[in-house]
Amino acid sequence: QVQLVESGGGLVQPGGSLTLSCAAAGRTFSRYARGWARQPPGQERELVASITWNGGNTYYADSVKGRFTISRGYDKNLVHLQMNSLKVEDTALYLCNANWRWYDYWGQGTQVTVSS
Fold this sequence. Notes:
It is built from no helices and eleven strands. It is mainly β. Strands 2, 4, 5, 6, 9, 10 and 11 form a seven-stranded mixed sheet that branches. The protein has a four-stranded antiparallel sheet with strand order 1-3-8-7, with no helix packed on it. The chain is globular.
């Protein structure tokens, strides 16, 4: 059974940093593109970052460009999201994604709250 499990969320002050991690299990994910999306309360889900299967290309939403960095772990089933200079508006449930061809998987999410 495929599972994506996020970790690393929490409460942080504005200007602080957090690193999210997502571990995928249930199959080999080395060919999968990976991504992170976020969903603030009452709002739609927004893709914030993604990375190709080989790490050769990345995408960032304008709202996080220059502050967030997505990377794949040495274990290809891992993906990380380094978040720096966090703002109050970054508060959301952050969800991990893995996709390849018609396969599209999501985790349950990890909460990030940016507040003083």
